[in-house]
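User: structure tokens for this one?
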Amino acid sequence: IGIEGASIFSSRAEKRSDVGKATVIGFITVLLFLVLVNVLSLGVMTQPELAGLQNPSLASVLEHIVGPWGGLLISIGLAVSL
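Assistant:
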């Protein structure tokens, strides 16, 4: 959706190169968040604990870190994204 959205709004950009830069920066940012979520969860819980979590497992990880509201936040975000 991001790349298609960038190409649609590219006609409004002052320079076409800005669209390419924004697309690459957005992709790298999302990739960085994905890697951080996966790697940092291993620093919070052990691998056997992570393997035993039910889906959505990120909700359980965040609940382990900050309490019940963390799991609720992820569950609401998941419901909205679906």
